Amino acid sequence: MIYEEVEANPIEIKVEEAPFSQFDYDEVVSKPRFFTPPLQYQRNLFVRDIINSHMEGTGKKIRKLAVLGCGSLSLERFLMSSLGDMGIERVLSVDIDEHELAKGIKLLKIEHIPLADATRFARSVLLNIQPDLFIVSTPNHEYNEAFGLPNGHFRHGDHKFEFSRQEFRNWLFKIVGEFTPTYGYLVKFVGKVPGFDRLGGATQFGIIHKKRARLSGVVRHECSKVYRKVGETVVRNSLFSLEREKVKQAFRLWLQENKLLEENLIQSSIGNFWRVDMKEIVRNIELPTKLKNNLNKRSMVDMLRFICRGRVINEVYNGEFCLNIPHTVTKDELIEITSTTN
Questions:
Q1: Where are the domains of the chain?
Q2: For a tag on the chain, would you pick the N or C end, based on fewer CB atoms within 10 A?
Q3: pTM for the whole structure
Q4: How far apart are CA 208 and CA 187, in angstroms?
Q5: Which of 306, 267, 299 is nearest to 281 (CA)?
Q6: Nearest to 200 by CA among 163, 170, 159, 148
Q7: Which reactions are catalysed by this chain (predicted)?
Q8: DSSP labels for 165-190?
Q9: Which residues have C-beta within 8 Å of that of residue 323, sequence separation ≥ 6?
Q10: Each residue of 207-265: pLDDT tens digit?
């Protein structure tokens, strides 16, 4: 789990507040400066304003901030003087790039990892961390025209993909759609060059937020339907933790009732494993029929991968989502993990 792994290997550093004139991430000395103020400054300012707006709208302080893909701590340095006023007590900064970490160690910047991984990661954040506010930033590929880049060329050599505006909206719609009515989203653009307003902006942000349950009108004492509707809303908005616990219990029961026999191992080029049919897990889940029927098998597989700390893997077999247990993982090990509090 991300917090456990990071806290087990902390890196303590001292950083200084970023100056306004700091070079933009998208601009270096050898290139012309397109944006005033720099695009990185505009992005950081946008994120700060979104956080402040969220706190004003909900009336709650944000105590924890996670910057996934922190780079050289640009956002953290920008927010340093505001952290106290925001009520932020803890900042978690993570980056996969050792060179960036070495500089001083960028919000999730999804374009630096393969699209499939970015999709799984975003879904995992919403499924397992369940943040009140999740901000995703990525380049607007259409805006590369403003930089004079040839059609189809990416803005940076290490980008694995870049979304057009419609592609980004489609991506968000597909991911967030799995978590309705708990989450909603909107798209905003930052960084504009005169003459290219038709392209939106250089950076596109997906602002994913938890919806607040609202009641309208007066609830009459004799009206039972309103009470039922309120109950359904409460269940939907607090269902993640209940589902995760029930899925964990069901998987543990499956492990206790089934032997992982050598003759049942499936041979493959990437290693041998036991395949778990998720239908068998669903049968073990103790939930009302209506809630059980609404369970998403892909979400269940992701839950178990998270709960088991990556020791199990997912697979699509004959059009169905399955859970695979590598032959190097023991049943006792998985039972122990699923018996602890996650």
A1: 39-210, 239-339
A2: N
A3: 0.56
A4: 9
A5: 299
A6: 163
A7: small RNA 3'-end nucleotide + S-adenosyl-L-methionine = small RNA 3'-end 2'-O-methylnucleotide + S-adenosyl-L-homocysteine + H(+)
A8: HHHHHHHHHHHHHTTTTTEEEEEEEE
A9: 251, 275, 276, 278, 281, 301, 304, 305, 312, 313, 314, 315
A10: 999 887 554 444 454 444 444 444 444 444 456 677 888 899 999 999 999 999 999 99
